[in-house]
Amino acid sequence: MTYAADDTAARRRRQGPFELLAAGLDDLREAGLLPEQRTTLRELGVEGASQGAHPVVSFTPHGPRSLGREKERGLAGRGLEGEGVLLSADALPWAVAVVGSGGRGQWSCRLSTAVPPAQRTGAVTTSEMHHDQIAAANLGEPLGVSVPLRIALTAEPIPSHVSALDYVIGPALAQGHDVALYAPVMFRREAQRRGVEFHRAGTDWTCDVAVQQAASEIWKESGNAPFNRYIFGRLWPDQAGAKAQDLITEWTRERPDLVIAECGDFGAHLAAKVLHLPVFAADNGLGPVLVDLWDTDIAPALTSLHKQHGQDTPVLPAMLTPAPAQWFYERPPHSVRAVRRTVAQLRTLLPEWLDRSPSTRPLVYVSLGTLTTAMSGLRTVVGSVYREVMAALSAIGCEAIVSAGELAKDLRGADRRIRVVEHVPQPALLRRADLFVTHGGRASLLDAVQGATPVLGMGVLADQPDNAAAFARRGLGRALELTATRGEIADAMTAVLGNSCYGAAMTAARAELSQLPPLDLTELLAGG
Predict the structure, then answer these.
(1) Taking Cα atoms as reference points, which of 78, 71, 91 lies closest to residue 25?
(2) Strand order in the sheet with 55-59
(3) pLDDT of 445 over the 50 cut
(4) How far apart are CA 280 and CA 260, in angstroms?
(5) In 203-212, which positions are buried (b, 16+ CB within 10 angstroms) versus exposed (e)?
(6) Backbone torsion region of residue 240, taken as left when φ is above 0, otherwise alpha when ψ lies between -120 and 50, otherwise beta
(7) 95-100/109-114 β-pairing
(8) CB burial class (10 A; 0-12, 13-18, 19+) of residue 160?
């Protein structure tokens, strides 16, 4: 059970850990988890030291939050980070654990029970669990009451950047946590489709035609490296202040237990730092780009903003990534933590027109991403690439589905074997496809791995060219420049379709991906 700061908390904010423990024991007694008789802390064996075999009270980062009126019990206080007391395991049939937030601000406390070692005769049994709330544990470890956390997710206004967070959203919901997305209004529907709360934070600044045009011109005239420096070393830092202010306001009103921010959401990183909230960066593919540019471009651009908020040098938070780090990072930072990838169920269902018996001809799926077709300044370039790819498809004996977003209406041709659509549920389709012609976005490549579908990468911008090259080096497909001709594209597609080694490499990669540890949000918060 978790106790959030409400009106009762006002009477306890000046309490230290001993008083906090006493209040917690009273609440556990009321819940029927402790003996009815009144017992003093001294009689319970409380010691004011941090040594002993059975730690009962420990304070770790865990902020107060609202659980709804029916759950609010009001247990909060103050103390020093790392402070704790011990309760003798022999003094009670059940020991008590209290976990609170770091030393600045209020405490939010988690209470759990544990079978004293003296009473354990073997494996923990169901009869030893209260109300089916206590999860089984190994001998020597406490049994923890399941506590829903309030988890705040953030995203920047790029069309695919919520689906790129599904590897966090899925496990968080499955583990019973309360999940809220703090993002520009363009993502309200995406939040609703996934069953998470939505709170507006930041603006849809990437939809500004002038912003798109300026970025597109830099990419066309100077190439991808200057484009990355402009986007991540200037444009995104310029937007961080407004996003940080929105989040500081929101999170002061309703404080999350844990923040998992898109890796490029610099405003969210700052807001969490200002409010002393535990924060992790969710790698959506941009992680390697940000790491490379951090010291030279990004941190200098953010330093003034951090100083305005009384913070020191900007630092990229510890990173979660849904793939083996060595797949995409040339030198993975020590703080990168690889976790198992999941996708939203809504992206795993084929539409009726696709859910049919497969053809005898190979199926090629083509998509050059959502961002590239949404940016007005890139549509002409990307449209030309689509036309070269479709001409190559017509030259080989295959069927094809081309997902082209806003360009779809301009690309439909006479070849009945090539179906052009605005959108398809990509993970579902890649379980059917024999080849994926892709822009090399991180999420798209991982969709291909989970479908065991070899790729032909044609990277456009940001992280995409490096991603496509990395997959080619691993034998998961081939890579071509955007300037490739229809003949070169047809030759590359034929080579991948005709060589089973690419499919075998993808199958091995899928097995490697599936072996990553699942994301456990409670363990993550506790520093596990």
Answers:
(1) 91
(2) 2-3, 109-114, 95-100, 55-59, 85-86
(3) yes
(4) 5
(5) bebbeeeebb
(6) alpha
(7) antiparallel
(8) buried
| Region at 202 (left for phi over 0; alpha for psi -120 to 50; beta for the rest) | left
Residues 85, 47 contacting (CB under 8 angstroms): yes
Q: Beta partners for 437?
A: 366, 456
Length of the chain as a residue count: 528
**480, two tokens:** 């071509």
Q: Report which residue type is found at 144.
A: G
The predicted pLDDT at position 465 comes to 95
Torsion of CA 7, 10, 15, 18, to 10 degrees: 0
The DSSP code for 453 is -
Q: What does the radius of gyration of the chain's CA atoms come to, in whole angstroms?
A: 26
The answer to whether residues 460 and 517 touch, using CB atoms and an 8 Å cutoff, is no
What Å distances lie between residue 393 and 105, 112, 177, 286, 476, CA to CA? 61, 61, 46, 31, 20
| Rounded Cα distance, 85 and 392, in Å | 71
pTM: predicted TM-score of the whole model, two decimal places: 0.73
- Residues pairing with 85 in the sheet: 57
φ and ψ of 366, to 5 deg:
-125, 130
Task: Judge whether residue 99 has pLDDT over 90.
Answer: no
pLDDT tens for each residue of 272-286: 999 999 999 999 999
Q: Are 133 and 26 in contact (CB under 8 A)?
A: no
Is the pLDDT assigned to residue 241 strictly greater than 60?
yes
Tens digit of each residue's pLDDT (9 = 90 or more) over 27-52: 555 655 544 444 443 444 433 323 33
Q: At what angle do helices 236-253 and 266-274 cross, to 10 degrees?
A: 40
Q: Check if the beta carbon of residue 180 is closer than 8 Å to that of residue 188.
A: no
Q: Please name the amino acid found at residue 130.
A: H
